Amino acid sequence: RQEEERQLVEQVSIGRLALTGSSTTAGVLKFQCYLLRSIAPEEQLREVCMVFGLDWQELLRKGSNKRCSLCNGAIVELPKQEVVGRVPTKALEAYNAFFTCSQDPSRTVFWHGANTDPIREIQRCLEDLCF
To answer: What's the alpha-carbon Rg for the chain, to the nearest Å?
Structure first.
C-alpha cells in the first residue's frame, strides 16, 4: 500500500489527478485526488465519467486506452519481427500487432487476444452504465 501511495504522489507531482477509494490515501495526497464514493468498479467508472464530464466514446476513439494500466506509460507498437522468439509461435502466426509499455524495462509484449477481454468488458460497462 505504501508503494502504491508513493507512486500516486509521484504522479500528482507531475500534474496528474489521482483517483482513490481510500480516505487515508486521499489524506496523503492532500486535495490532489478525487475520492471515489462508489465501491463497485462499474459504478466507479460511471462516477468518473459523470463527475469529470467524460465522453467515453470520444476517449476511446482518440486512443485513451493506449496507456499502461500499471504505470500510465505510453503503449507503443512493436514491429512483428522484433517479437519473434519473445511470444508464443501461435500468437505470432495469429496476430500482426504487438505492443509494450514504454516505461517497462523488461519490454513485456502484449497482443490483442484473451488479455484484451477485460477492456471489452469495460467498454460494455460504459455502454450500459454511462449514458
So the answer is: 17
How far is C-alpha 125 from the chain's CA centre? 15
Question: If pLDDT is split at 50, 70 and 90, which confidence band does 129 have?
Answer: low
Residue 63 — φ and ψ, nearest 5°?
90, 30
Identify the H or E element spanning 131.
none
Closest alpha carbon to 125 in 40, 15, 20, 52: 40
β-partners of residue 35 are: 20
User: What confidence tens digit (pLDDT) does each residue in 2-60 have?
Assistant: 888 888 888 888 888 888 898 888 888 887 889 999 998 878 888 998 899 888 777 66
Q: Of the candidates 55, 52, 54, which has an alpha carbon nearest to the alpha carbon of residue 36? A: 52
Determine the Cα–Cα distance for residues 60 and 66; give it in Å rounded to an integer. 9
- Number of helical (H) and strand (E) elements in the chain, helices listed first: 6, 5
Cα 48 from chain centroid (whole Å): 14
Report the chain's terminal Cα–Cα distance, integer Å: 34
